[in-house]
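question for whoever is on the cluster today: can someone run the full assembly for these? two chains, 474 residues total. i dont have access anymore since they changed the login thing
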Amino acid sequence: MIHTVNRRLEAKLEERTGQKVRHCYQCKKCSAGCPVAFAMDPLPHEVMKLVQYGAEERLLKCSTIWLCASCETCSTRCPNDIDIAGVMDGLRRMSLESGLASEREIALFHKAFLNGIKLAGKTNESVLIGQYKALSGRLFDDLGLGAVMFLKGKVKMLPRVAKDRGAVRRIFKETEKGS
Amino acid sequence: MSDYDFTYYPGCSQSGSAEEYGDSTEAVCKALGIELTELPDWSCCGASSAHMTNDLLSVALPGRDLAEAKKLGRDVLVVCAACYSRMKIAQKRVLEDEELARRVEESVGEDPRFAGQVRHLLDVLVNDYGLARIKERVLLPLEGLKAVPYYGCLLVRPPEVCFCDSVENPTDLDRFLEALGVEVRPWSFKTDCCGGSLSLSRTDVTERLVNKLFTRAEEAGANCIVAACPMCVANLEMRQQPGKFSFKIPHHLPVLYFTELLGLAMTLPGTDRWLKSHIIDPMPLMAETKLMIPS
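^ ran it for u. tokens below:
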């Protein structure tokens, strides 16, 4: 049960994402069209309501903000022009900063993906999958698929790199606090 | 000098699992006289992972590529829907938000305010080159192919940066396929998400989205799915039934790139190589429709 309402979370999100969550009037179009709704708790329209209530901890711990696939169907349909996927981005970044993030594996995937870019300047699928497996411990996933991909010539052993990797690393360093 | 002269941003997938997309892009552009000069020393756009976890990084990574493109001056051509989306959004934001542009410039070390256009190849073919002219280049009308056009998310959303003619029911790819002689089957899942960003981490979610797309495509009477995004194609081909040591596919509907079908219709050399590199083998369909003689 929520007994208190505070505007702090809504204000923080507005500062980060420019989105005015107070405009949500619970039409539920976002949840109706969300392709991932079946796996979410709370649903997107409930996330909007919880933001209005200021239920920060509950939101930063929830899996919904990680399951959002950023397909932007909700943002496109919102009658109040709230970029709901953008709000999910904001909550996800706050969740990472606060250390409350659930859905460890999704967070690890993003980490592995960005590590690969930091390393090579480009994304190499073999490096990404190797990093993700090492970080998540899911070593034996998709071995069958891997064999099929290898036979189809889809596994590139030599990683491709950007020449000026220093410039890309510099971007990572400069934007470290930029979330 | 050609009428269509672009700086080409190939994107990472096109030299990895989507090599056939990159190769077919270069081949059809060459055949149509669309000149591509690769962006020198391009780097990754950061895709979903950057914008999901760090806002400034998500603008600065494509910002570096925009800065390189600015030096060359020409419009930029992109084929990956995710690269396209990230570059368009980054460009819009640095051009409209001067404070952000300054922060990006600081981290990139160069001016990211590229004022030229960032275009997707499908947009250029349908809206600039024109379907009438494409029709003239078709030597082998693709009769027998019944396709559902699959746009996915990032070719259509957000509509403020995307080119498609409608956000709920786009027809650009439909009309392109019709020009090649393909029978386009109507379906309601043109722009439904395939769950690409959860493909490795929450495979259970992705699997459900992918199987829904196949089931609906089959119900629509299609014998193939045609897409314009390497993430969608990889996901559809590889994520039907993930497992550890085995790899099974309940649905055998081939998933093809629009560029491959253009190559096939123009009888370009290399088409068989592209088609054969797919995880879901399209060769039985090619033989059945007599579009390609099995070798």
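summary bc i know u wont read the tokens: Residues 112 and 176 of chain A are 16 Å apart (CA to CA). Chain A touches chain B through 64 residues (CB under 8 Å).
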